[in-house]
UniProtKB/TrEMBL annotation, chain B:
Protein origin, superkingdom: Bacteria
One GO term describing the cellular component: plasma membrane
SMART domains, alphabetized: AAA
Protein name: ABC transporter ATP-binding protein
Keywords of the record: ATP-binding, Nucleotide-binding, Transport
Pfam families per the UniProt record, alphabetical: ABC_tran (PF00005)
Origin species: Thermocrispum agreste
Domain ABC transporter: residue ranges: 3-236
Molecular function via GO: ATP binding; ATP hydrolysis activity
Length: 312, 238, 307
């Protein structure tokens, strides 16, 4: 039972870290990525392949995984940001499918669905973190650092740039700032944090395969971010507690094993819808109409009234 | 440093929005653009601020050609604009978006900048709502935030797109004061206005646009007294 | 080389299915701005419904497919998108809602139907030989159906009052209001057309790919890709893009194992937007205007001039 709880606790932390990355990209800068599992996967695969070579050094694997994820994110952003922001999501889904194809089919490196087992125990500064409890503590320490960093980021000048992009890229330009540069930053930063989650995932489970980082995982990360509260620094932790710790309790019901996965997905979907609908009721949202196309009735009607004011 | 617009033309799918418009806006003066809806006033602002690229013609600030430059470079050169629909960052606090406008880049040293933002918000009567999200403000306050962002940017040219429309009397007076102060600091001020009372009070120069063409340019008296302008613009009511 | 041509033509025919989906997506995106990703679940739903009812009679199966397609799509519009849009004018919540609905739809179908692909029985899966190429009859029919759907939609948009008002709504919502066309009706008609088009798309997809709960996802994503590549706002561009992707998908089999097929298609997609971000249309229309983001303000002048 204790083992089970540490496992759930550790996985909740790992997914919180991966979702913090997505929260930076989607929640702060408003760039919807449906490929965040890819970056987590990059971190995990780099760890799986590199850890045996470097004696399980966590720092080396983390640096390598994060670096590769940032490079890949840059490539994705270069292609996807060329089309309008609304379609970044389509490009990212396409990217997710490309990477899934590669992970499955490039058997000589990734071992496809068979996966890579036997990832060594992580070491930090020469010390082995051999027990699960120790790793769990480490994971949650990383979670705390990441939440703190995103909270600082959110309040600082980078956070203001991200928010400006999310709210209105055109106004951002006319205030002399580059929305594109900000989007690159948000995508690469988000990829880096998610990759770190992937590194910790690989070390914790000791096994990676191609099925883990498919689009179902990306959907899970979206669900975590949305349920926890988009754009809140602590949101991914709350979301991860719900999605990773609570919803898998579905498997305690007496269900055929094939039904558990889809049922979980169903709940994620319903939760996303519920949050979106509820948010509308909570915020009222009426005045947001000011800045969106085909709905800007207030300013134009105001100006029309003024047109009638004619000198006598 | 004056803003010179020379034979600027912009067409959208056969509809000519700007038909060889030329005008000069001098520093330390308020130039008012008037004309009916669809005259091309906002399109001209879009062309100056780089949101659209004219088909031909030139727009210069002093010796610097603006046509072809991206919008953010034009903004960095000090040509800053407001939008008729304001385009505030609705989900961001008044303070944060003014601060954002005051920051030139990501890592600006902030002590001085923050002091400036505080002064601007106080000047515009926004100190009490500085922590509020822009969406939750009244229409007049939202317009004040739009002005606050422009003040924070400093800049050399202001393009004001119907900023006085829909203001309460006190807000209106404050707006006139702020524009007047900017004029005395030597800014180039171009404003689009339908409220001709305001044009009379503030404008040093008036340009009448109709169907993409600058039909009359001159002082308030000259343009308001122009027969063509009277027929096209005021004549509708006679 | 002969094999290459064979694969290309085979892909072109399958591209017909993508055409039918892409036209519907393109219309919804233009008129409402919603990236209706839940449509993928609708395609699967159509294919599965048809396959399940088909043993009881072909006509009955088509009717049942029509009913579920309209019911799902209109429920998405009236029960989800409208209430969300009423309270949040942003497009982002609408998109998230659609994303959620897509997940709900796919997973619900996975719970109800078998994960294995089922093909409705047909005698049309034989081939005929044209100019030395083996063409599958049902694929030829899918291609024909796509052409008919394209022509019908185009005629509707060009010749009917509702159609031209929808085109107006796609350009500018306020103008449609001015002309007395309620926005809601334009939006609803766009969704109805998409629902109607997904009936033949789903049926042919069931015959050609086999029906399974997540079958609609990749065709939908391909359709989205084509809408982007083909240039937003043009059903002709979307249809052409869909055929191109069909060909690419077919040709991908030439030197690579089938597992790489989807990867190749989407790699080509990303390469195309890297090279031609404004879509393939930019090659056809001469020198494009400078690629600037077009704010709402820039769509304003023509409208004002019309008034």
């Amino acid at each position: 039972m204790i083992d089970y709880l540490t496992t759930v606790g550790a996985l909740t932390g790992i997914f919180a870290i991966a979702a913090i990355g997505l929260n930076i990209t989607t929640g702060f800068a408003g760039v919807f990525s449906a490929a965040q599992a890819v970056f987590m996967g990059i971190g995990a695969y780099v760890t799986a392949l590199l850890a045996p070579e470097v004696g399980g050094s966590l720092v080396v694997c983390a640096l390598a995984g994060v670096a590769l994820a940032v490079v890949v994110a840059f490539v994705l952003a270069s292609a996807a940001l060329r089309v309008s922001e609304e379609y970044f999501m389509v490009a990212s889904l396409a990217f997710q499918i490309i990477v899934s194809t590669v992970l499955i089919s490039w058997y000589s490196v990734t071992k496809g669905t068979d996966g890579i087992p036997g990832i060594p125990i992580p070491t930090i500064m020469g010390a082995e973190l051999s027990d699960q409890a120790g790793q769990t503590v480490l994971i949650w320490a990383v979670v705390a650092v990441m939440v703190g960093l995103t909270a600082v980021l959110r309040r600082g000048s980078v956070g203001r740039l991200f928010y400006a992009i999310r709210e209105d890229p055109i106004a951002t330009q006319t205030l002399g700032r580059s929305p594109i540069a900000g989007k690159y930053a948000a995508i690469m930063l988000g990829a880096a944090v998610s990759a770190l989650g992937g590194v910790l995932y690989a070390f914790y489970t000791g096994f990676v395969n191609s099925a883990t980082f498919d689009y179902a995982m990306s959907i899970k990360l979206v669900a975590i971010v949305v349920v926890g509260g988009i754009g809140l620094a602590i949101g991914p932790v709350v979301g991860s507690a719900v999605i990773i710790a609570v919803i898998p309790l579905i498997s305690l019901l007496d269900l055929p094993s094939t039904a558990v996965g889809p049922l979980q997905q169903l709940v994620y979907g319903l939760l996303i819808i519920a949050v979106v609908v509820l948010r509308g009721y909570l915020t009222g949202g009426g005045l947001r109409a000011l800045r969106r196309r085909h709905r800007s009735t207030l300013p134009s009607s105001a100006s029309r009234i003024d047109t009638e004011r004619v000198p006598t | 440093m004056s803003l010179q617009i020379d034979t600027v033309r912009a067409a959208f799918g056969g509809l000519v929005a700007l038909d060889d418009v030329s005008l000069t806006a001098e520093p330390g003066a308020v130039t008012a653009l008037i004309g009916p809806n669809g005259a091309g006033k906002t399109t001209l602002f879009n062309a100056i601020s780089g949101l659209i690229t004219p088909d031909r013609g030139s727009i210069r600030l002093g010796d610097v050609e603006l046509v072809g430059k991206p919008a953010r470079h034009i903004a960095k050169l000090g040509v800053i604009r407001s939008f008729q629909e304001l385009r505030l960052f609705g989900g961001v606090s008044v303070y944060d978006q003014t601060l954002f406008a005051a920051e030139r880049r990501v890592a600006t040293r902030s002590r001085k900048v923050r002091g400036k933002v505080d002064r601007i918000l106080a000047r515009l009567g926004l100190s009490d709502v500085r922590r509020d999200l822009a969406v939750n403000l009244s229409y007049g306050q939202q317009k004040a935030v739009s002005i606050a962002r422009m003040l924070a940017m400093e800049g050399r040219v202001w393009l004001l797109d119907e900023q006085a429309a829909g203001l309460a009397p006190r807000e209106y007076d404050l707006f006139c004061e702020v524009v007047d102060e900017a004029r005395r600091r030597g800014l180039v001020i171009v404003l689009i206005e339908h409220n001709l009372q305001l044009v009379r009070e503030l404008a040093d120069k008036v340009v009448f646009l109709d169907r993409g063409r600058a039909l009359a340019t001159g002082t308030v008296q000259e343009v308001f007294g122009n027969d063509v302008v009277r027929a096209l613009y005021f004549g509708r009511r006679d | 080389m002969h094999e290459f041509v064979q694969l290309a033509v085979g892909g072109l025919l399958v591209g017909g299915i993508y055409v039918m989906i892409a036209i519907g997506m393109s219309l919804i995106l233009d008129v409402t701005g919603i990236l209706h990703i839940a449509h993928g679940a609708n395609i699967s739903l159509c294919a599965l419904t048809f396959t399940a009812v088909e043993p009881h009679g072909f006509v009955l199966a088509v009717a049942a497919t029509l009913v579920v397609s309209l019911a799902f799509t209109m429920a998405a519009y009236d029960l989800l998108y409208r209430p969300v849009a009423k309270r949040q004018a942003d497009l982002f919540p609408l998109f998230l809602a659609s994303f959620g609905l897509w997940i709900v739809g796919s997973s619900a179908l996975t719970l109800v139907f078998s994960a294995n692909a089922t093909h409705p029985p047909t005698s049309l899966d034989s081939t005929i030989d044209v100019a030395g190429l083996h063409l599958v009859k049902i694929n030829l029919m899918a291609f024909g159906a796509a052409i008919v759907c394209y022509l019908l939609t185009r005629t509707f948009l060009r010749r009917t009052m509702t159609g031209s008002l929808m085109r107006a709504a796609a350009c500018n919502g306020e103008m449609a209001d001015v002309w007395g066309m309620p926005r809601r009706r334009a939006e609803r008609v766009a969704f109805v057309i998409a629902a109607l088009l997904s009936v033949p798309a789903g049926i042919f997809a069931a015959y050609i790919f086999g029906a399974y709960p997540t079958m609609g996802d990749v065709p939908l994503l391909i359709a989205f890709a084509t809408v982007i590549i083909g240039g937003v706002g043009s059903i002709t561009g979307a249809a052409a893009g869909a055929l191109i992707f069909g060909v690419i998908q077919g040709v991908a089999l030439w030197q690579l194992p089938p597992a790489w097929q989807e990867g190749v298609v989407f790699t080509v997609f990303l390469l195309i937007i890297l090279i031609a971000p404004r879509g393939l249309a930019m090659f056809g229309k001469g020198r494009p205007k400078r690629a600037k983001p077009t704010p709402q303000t820039s769509s304003e002048p023509p409208v004002e001039l019309v008034r």
